[in-house]
Amino acid sequence: MTLLQTVIDEAQGTVPATRLLKRMKVLGTRIGSEALLDWVHRELTGYPAHTPVPTYRGPIAIAPEGIYHGLTAAGLAQLGPLPLARTAFPEDMADTLFNWDLREPLATLEDAAREEQTSSSWPEELVRFYNGRVRQGKGGPGSDWACVSVGFRIPRWVYAGVVDQIRTTALDLALGLEQAAPLAGQPDAGDETRAAARDVVQHNHYYLFGQFDRSNLTIGASGTAHQQLSTDPHRQ
């Protein structure tokens, strides 16, 4: 069985996606494709902050929710979780705070896909900034209330969808290579085969590695932190 046939079989099976991508790393090395190797490396190790992510990793529209404390006639009271209004923030910050990129390594995504959901919470400095907006009457239930925490949850089907898209990307590439250069990835493949394989990868680079159509998923609810939410309004 050729390497391509193995990749095609495993992409359709239950082999962990991390193992599948390690085979793709072998494929990329043997055909000499930097584009493929770069994609595999980023999927296995994660995407650094401030770098673009494939469209299947984000941005995902999220719905942060806040917990509030305040004094009433009956004493200290709690409200929430209540959805935060996007209009409570400057538009450049809102673009960051109400959207999320899944930058974690593939192994982390696979683990999260086995959980019911994962939770993230805003850092204290961002909650303090939001409280300033609440006191100005620009958000929350009223200026007499203080937000004590903000968070959201990401259900497992979101992670499962990303993992499945990575498998599908590997499958699509392997099928394309099988048609154009069926011996691609074999140790004894000739220069012509390797060149044809690199052409397939390069020709399909933007389609295969997710450069079109951003996600319209919406998720939310409060919880404890699994990820650190960036406060940088220019985070991509």
3D architecture notes:
Strands 3-2-6-5 form a 4-stranded antiparallel β-sheet. A 3-stranded mixed β-sheet has the order 4-1-7. It starts with a helix and ends in a 16-residue tail after the last strand. The longest helix is centred in the C-terminal third of the chain and has 25 residues. It is an alpha+beta fold and about 240 residues long. The C terminus is likely disordered. Helix 1 packs antiparallel against helix 2, helix 1 runs antiparallel to helix 7 and helix 2 runs antiparallel to helix 3. Strand 2 and strand 3 form a beta hairpin. It has 2 domains: about 100 residues, no CATH class; about 100 residues, no CATH class. The chain is built from 9 helices and 7 strands. Helix content is about 45%, strand content about 20%.
Strands ordered across the widest β-sheet: 3-2-6-5
Distance between the termini: 41 Å
Low-confidence stretches: 212-236
Number of domains: 2
**Could you say which overall geometry the principal axes of the C-alpha atoms support?**
elongated
Count helical runs: 9
Helix/strand/pairing category: alpha+beta
Secondary structure tally: strands: 7
- Tell me the fraction of residues in β-strands, as a range: 15-25%
Helix content: 40-55%
Q: Helix and strand string, N-terminal first? A: HHHEEEHEHEHEHHHE
The pLDDT mean sits at 87
Main beta-sheet strand count, sense and barrel state? 4 strands, antiparallel
